[in-house]
Design brief:
- By secondary structure, this protein is mainly α.
- It has three helices and two strands; from the N terminus they run ααββα.
- A two-stranded antiparallel sheet has the order 1-2.
- The longest helix has 11 residues.
Length: 65
């Protein structure tokens, strides 16, 4: 996973819960991967199921987006 993150050079932090060791997926109702939108204080404010849902949430939060 680390190699994939480095290869793609995402401009955002990428966090991994390998084998759901910390129960992140179960806690947020996803099977094995997820997008999380996190505010500046570290609070999860959205768990969109697709990139389109993520974009919709971002447009709602930042109308000029």
């Amino acid at each position: 996973m680390r190699k994939a993150v480095e290869r793609h050079a995402f401009p955002w932090p990428c966090l991994v819960d390998v084998d759901d060791e910390y129960g992140v997926f179960k806690r947020h109702g996803t099977a094995n991967s997820a997008l999380f939108l996190i505010d500046r204080s570290g609070t999860i404010i959205a768990v969109p199921n697709s990139v389109d849902e993520l974009k919709e949430k971002l447009v709602h939060l930042f109308p000029s987006f």
